[in-house]
Write a structure and sequence with these properties.
Layout: E1 2-6, H1 10-29, E2 33-37, H2 43-53, E3 58-63, H3 65-72, E4 81-86, H4 92-96, H5 103-112, E5 115-123, E6 126-128, E7 131-135, H6 136-146, H7 152-166, E8 170-176, E9 179-191, E10 213-219, H8 226-234, E11 244-249, E12 251-256, E13 262-264, E14 267-269, E15 274-286
Parallel strand pairs: 1-2, 1-3, 3-4, 4-15
Antiparallel strand pairs: 5-6, 5-15, 7-9, 7-13, 8-9, 8-12, 9-10, 10-11, 12-15, 13-14
Length: 290
């Protein structure tokens, strides 16, 4: 049986309409299914955890990146096949995983395809599928949360521009080659997926099944160079710039001079350490096979 956990508010209510279409498809095909709707933040995790503990083997998140993050953190990845019907404003992980944006094709993938081994991350006990970071990305997300007018990519881009103007660089310590190196940065992030913010390719070379993570740090630069950095980021050409440090790793631990908020798949966390490791092939996710 497929268990669908749906955030009906995702993408201004679009997810609720898509859920109705999914139900119609499943009923026509005679597929055994159950629908569960969330009504508040965190409920997706609670529902997924209960279903996983009850022995349900196929659990599907219907919504955006936030819904995917919640549901994934509730399942037992070793025993559950995880599906995604992307219908948020960004759908960044789904895009990296090449899961169709068309709901009918996404359902077809669930019914006709197979769950494929996929890497995921763990940050101080919290699971992540896409990108974990802190710095200007957190500042942007906080501005997005406060915005009452713009939504989706436009909201993210405007928040990004404002943050670039006002942002103060983060100071942190990082182990490198057996030594502790001090850095100041605009952003420090580690990617399993390639993009965030509805298509901004911060980790353009990351792969979700290579057993490693891409650690990208945008270092301190003169304010006059920030527009140039912004253009390169939007072009997906951020790697190779002289203000970027990049390496592939299986784990990373960053120590900040003062407490920071960490974003995991676009969700904000306080009071946790930036201590990230990869779980190689640890999740079985319905996605196209390479």
């Amino acid at each position: 049986m497929f268990c669908f956990i749906i955030n009906p508010q995702a993408n201004r209510g679009k997810a609720a309409k898509i859920a109705a279409k999914i139900k119609e498809i499943l009923e026509k095909k005679g597929v055994l299914h159950a629908f569960y709707y969330t009504s508040r933040p965190g409920e997706g995790t609670e529902i997924a955890k209960k279903l996983s503990e009850e022995g349900q083997k196929k659990i599907v998140a219907v919504g955006g990146d936030g819904t995917v993050h919640e549901v994934f953190n509730g399942i037992d990845p070793e025993n559950v096949q995880f599906g995604i019907i992307p219908c948020g404003s960004g759908n960044d992980f789904a895009a990296t995983a090449k899961i169709p944006g068309d709901p009918e094709k996404a359902v077809e993938l669930l019914l006709e395809g197979k769950a494929v081994p996929t890497d995921y991350m763990v940050c101080d006990g919290v699971k992540g599928l896409n990108i974990i970071g802190t710095g200007i990305d957190v500042d942007i997300l906080k501005r997005c949360r406060r915005s009452k007018i713009l939504k989706g990519k436009a909201q993210y881009l405007i928040s990004l521009i404002v943050s670039l103007i006002k942002f103060r660089f983060y100071s942190f310590r990082l182990p490198e080659n057996g030594e502790t190196v001090r850095k100041e940065a605009l952003i420090a992030c580690i990617g399993n997926g390639k993009r965030f913010g509805g298509g901004i390719r911060m980790c353009p070379e990351a792969e979700i099944d290579d057993g490693s993570l891409d650690f990208v740090v945008a270092g301190k630069m003169k304010k006059i160079r920030i527009p140039f950095a912004f253009v390169k980021l939007m072009q997906g050409k951020i790697l190779g710039q002289d203000f970027i440090s990049f390496r592939r790793t299986e784990n990373v631990h960053v120590e900040f001079d003062s407490p920071v908020t960490i974003q995991i798949d676009g969700e904000l966390y306080d009071g946790i350490d930036f201590d990230v490791s990869v779980v190689k092939g640890g999740a079985m996710i319905f996605r196209p096979q390479a």
